[in-house]
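Onboarding guide, step 5: your first structure request.
Type a short instruction followed by the sequence, for example:

Predict the 3D structure of this protein.
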Amino acid sequence: MPVLPRRRPALLLFSLGVPTLLASALAHAQDGDTARTLDAVSVVAERASTATKTDTPLTQTPQAISVVTSDLFSDRGAHTLQETLRYSAGVTADAYGMDTRSDGSTMRGLDPVQYLDGLRRSYGFNPMARTEVYGLERVEALRGPSSVLYGAGATGGIINAMTKRPTFNEIGGEVGVQLGNFDRKQFQADIGGALNDAGSVAGRVVGLVRNAGMQTDFIDDDRIYIAPSISWRGERSNLTVLASYQHDKTASSQQFLPVAATLNAAAGRPRLGPSTFLGDRDFDKLDSRVYSVTALFDHRFSDSVSLRSSVRYLDGKTEFRQLYPDTYSNPLDPFIDADKRVVNRNAYGVRPDVRVLTSDTAFQFDFATGAFQHLLLAGVDYTDYREESAGLDATPTPIDIYAPVSTGVTINAWNRLPDQRTTQLGVYVQDQIRWADRVSLVLGARRDHARSRTEGLPSQTDNATTYRAGLIGEIGAGVSPYISYSESFLPVNGQDLYGRAFKPMQGHQTEAGVKWQPARNMLVTASVYRITETNRQTNDPDNVLNVIQTGEIQSKGVELEGQFSFANDFTVTAAYARNKAEVTRSNFAMEVDQRLNDTPQELTSLWIAKGFQLDADARLRVGLGGRYVGNTQSLGYGGFIRTPSYTLVDGLFELQVTDWTMALNITNLTDKKYFAPCRNFGDCFTGNPRTVTGTISYRF
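The system replies with structure tokens like these:
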């Protein structure tokens, strides 16, 4: 596949238009195709639950949402949650490169909140073990504010990962071994099925053990993950219990390399590469253990009334320590020696112990009033987040960044930090009104009561009412235009360096678009939007140790996304997004009416995969994809920095022979060196180098 040319919008319109013209004929061919396939790949999702908390077709959902199935993100070689969204419209999946501290993605230029099975999992910055993608069935990315149903929803949207659950088929599954560069070695298994003859009880166990390195020298990527689950189904009730244990041993893969030695390195001076490690092998670590138990229950009182309830308890313990170069004192020239080789370092460490209880219970009513069919949802959700933590007092030492050898670092003490507790109670109601089986009106309202307590400080109470309205209708030939309005409310825990409590982030969005689904094997979505967000957290340009909240940000843009699954195992996905996010009000006058820092304006992607039946027992599949991420800029007292755009290519080669599958995934095929992004604070986030992963699995 050639490198994506500079006229990226034309490429995307072409990539969407050609499959569209072929869709009708190929759809008929697919319906009549009887050729034997070993493993059908699920690409085009038809339904999602994130946008409405009900099982709703995407063509009846008046808001943009991307659904990425496990088949699809596995084909593309995704290893982390953020990587599953690399080909989704409007999502900057690797917003800060490969960063082991968290899954850092942005949507429509703004921050989303991460959910797991419809319950919130991420709370601010906490370097807790990240979600394991081998344990997921799919990932749903709802773009834009969505607090009416979720309360704690950021303006950018929601990333809702859905875990694998028991199925009531015969016992079966897969076992596999995965090998890759950076010394990656992984054993994985997924086994489950019905546990009794009556077919009323089913179980499943998903797990893996990994020993691996990373792009950054001396950094491990080790993990133990096990997720047993059990389901029981009765005549009117269903209960599923999901448990998981995860233990990660790694460190920060991002070394915050100086801009002066990377993007803006002086002529004749070497550029530091993504493997550079400027920490201390005995000091740097990220050791995290997470336990969780989730119960999902539903009961049908009658054909028109049902109850659904979810509850999760999570316990996470983490120790995170890192040394990083002090580029912040003098971003343009951080060196402390005449030869410009040595920089000072800072030390950071935190040891959070987190316990989270979340629940969501709702009644669903299905009834008609005249010509209108109603699906009414009324519910209440609750979150209780508690954190006990300690901060590290350590003495760092300087380091020669071109010949890094760390010595003399000492840990003085761990100091107890104030305990934190945040509770949130929300009551919501939503009515999905369907008319003539063609038009859907979605109305919703919510009231939230949130309370934050930091030990030694007065408690903070926030109340908010949020609304949502959307209209979508099919006008013929599978074309469904829509318009919607939604709001967000997100309490922000903690305080700034001067003891001032953070205000809740708030936002609202107006969106319009059209969804086109002429056949089940294809879906095209086009949308335009305008978002306003207030009280967003950013770094303080006057004090790099402090965090402030800017006055107002506006994000507006256009998105185009298509997924196609043709006959003979031929799939295409394509996406294009143009976003203009600006700071419209701020106490930092220099950034007013300027592009939002670290936010690309343009994103483009194209993925093509084709299967070839070699004989009755063998099938070959190949895939090729391209991803373009536009340039970013960073503006502040440290100056103006523009990080160049980049284009990356990914590939897949897979051979299925009876019950065996051998797959080779390569991301960043050309091993392009890039940054994502560099900032005016003087540091650069390195991008992901070429990653090669081979997987051999046996299914039974």
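Each response can be followed by summary notes, for example: The first helix runs from residue 8 to 32.
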